[in-house]
């Protein structure tokens, strides 16, 4: 656009670049509506500081309210201090919604410029550097604010908040608060709260080794008031201190259950014992409110008749993650024998080993599911968009139409799906299974070799033409959900060396026996998903050459995040060449997480990775793995957008420290958001290193977790 001159203000003034384009096909020949749609995909800083200066027509369009009303700076890693200040100076008065979530590289003085956006109604400052005094100054100027997201860090002092700040907080209706220290934060000041989201990330010990306690909050004069609350959500990281603090929040809630409460969700890793206050709260909710969304700690539901007494109006989200919920209980207590649950958009049954099986004390986790239970579930929840069945063995019985994949194929509205690997295997290994016919074309592989992709021949899934279908039930499932945006295939026994919200496990269990029949051809079937943006594959022991990965790279052109873990036989990495071929085609890939023991991150790997021109974040986790420092430096020099480089391998501490210092010294100045962590995976100091990683990267890339139906849809923006 830089070639478009200032003389393009009127229809008669055609820029030189446009003169060479026949039949008015120049960009400025489009209608304003089309141009506004195009410009809506341009980052706000580029839009205002660059595109706006190309010509008078674009200058006017770039200031259209549809573009300046909402400004999203999260993950805009090129947003420097000066650019953010200049943006606020030029259009601050127009901004009504501003997200600076995860802008950890911006100083507190820059974040303070948000106070100039006096028309703000909604602001997200999670992950930003803000002291109590700076927060007070910002909020004092935002009298129209109704939605706020902040962090509460050690040193926070509510007594430093001014009267004007508290007046603003009293009008806030939505609050997302991430706690890094035991505190009520600003919740007591928010007397009009309708939605409260709490994220507990408090560590049990300080850096100096002092033990923290939630008792620090006892006796505080200001406590939360929840009388207008409609949504309560709490997500806890591991640690007793987080449980201790959330109990203090719940104790206030249990005194009087808000009559308008319609969503109550608590996500807790591990066990979380009930207290007298929580029992009173649950009994009160069962009597007085009808919920639309529910998630409870597994220890509150296991062996409890609570679900029988809860009332639901038009539920849109249920999570029973890791609960001992049998299929019979699911049908009787939640689905109520097959009632209409078409309003349900998200269902999380991860870790529910018996949720698709009848009530039986003698049943083993590896036994076949009851297809009738799944069929009832699918029929009742026909509009499901997000479904998580991971972390369990869901083995399908023999018989036509009884396979899990065949039943799930009826959920045509699915947008995200998480399944255990063994669930997509055929009902049982069959000697007469027809082999999948590979495509007739070959794709260049590795470094000059050729390999045939295991893609069944046939028509394009959108062409509508009939053709031979592969024998795989998994292929048929994916053909039925062509608009799937996120897919996870995770081995039932998989445990990451760096899990999220679970204790770290060094030794993983062997894969499920049925997972042995899921290999390259099943992975190739994922290539049907033309709109796929997020893919996770973990613990697939029968990946031989990795040819299916090439198929995904070629066909899934929208892919933005990729997580691969423990593919193939343990101790042997046989898919390196195929991965290199895949990466050549991933032009929109932004996040790559690779967890593979004995992986060699050599020059060939990083050379292939360099072709992912949009890559921003890389995390490699490899027990006994190796890396070549020179290759890492060359990769960072070629990939100009990479701002996260986390490498946890078997290299020595001195090698890791030397490489980390070299990267920071070479690239920190030109990449203000650069975050480099290179450390031995099995070193005892890893925990202390991880605590310094910005939460936005820790939660999304560095630590492994299932993300399908993890939270209710549209919980926050």
From TrEMBL:
Keywords: Ubl conjugation pathway. GO terms for cellular component: SCF ubiquitin ligase complex. Residues 84-674 form the F-box/LRR-repeat protein 18 LRR domain. One of its GO terms (biological process) is SCF-dependent proteasomal ubiquitin-dependent protein catabolic process. The keyword Ribosomal protein does not apply. Residues 32-73 form the F-box domain. Gene3D superfamilies: Ribonuclease Inhibitor. This is F-box/LRR-repeat protein 18 isoform X1.
